Amino acid sequence: MLVDTPGIHKPLHKFGEYMVKIAVNALKGQDLILFLIDPIDKVRESDLNIARIIKESKIPVILIINKIDAATPEEINEARNRIKTVLDENSNIIAEFEISALTGYNLAELLQKIIDVLPEGPQYYPEDMTTDRPLAFMISEIVREKIFHLTSQEIPHSTAVVVEEITDKEDLVYIRAEIYVERQSQKG
After folding, report:
1. pTM confidence score
2. I need a surface site. Which of 24, 63, 137, 158 has the fewest CB within 10 A?
3. Tens of pLDDT along 70-83?
4. Which CATH number fits domain 14-117: 3.40.50.150, 1.10.10.10, 2.60.40.10, 3.40.50.300?
């Protein structure tokens, strides 16, 4: 299972403190941490705080430097060196990858390393089962995705889709769904 934690940052209020606590607690029991840094935005003090938390976790880490297609070699080396002031040779870094999420550079190698490192877990579902979600949920997510794409920046993120009916009719499937939005003004 992959876990994407909320950002670890210096909290400014109680909710922020709660989100940081969730993110740090999410590390417990994990097999591997992917620590992604951006050399263009520079490694900040907050990134170093995250590195300290990761080091204390004792969980194996793959350090990933993204945007190498846009960063200069100097920016990449500066980012690497700054992180390694905390995550040094005695830390839990097991591998390091320079990638470009945009171009796909080195992503296959990164994925292979993740596969090699992670232990094989138990099989929770039968071989022929592709999802544990019902068909109505999958349809509602597809409709919701289309709403996002077709309405661009105007869509409310609180849009909900409820599939009311799914009926097979000869060579097609009839689907009736209700789309809910937060405010009356968003219906248009």
Report:
1. 0.64
2. 158
3. 999 999 999 999 99
4. 3.40.50.300
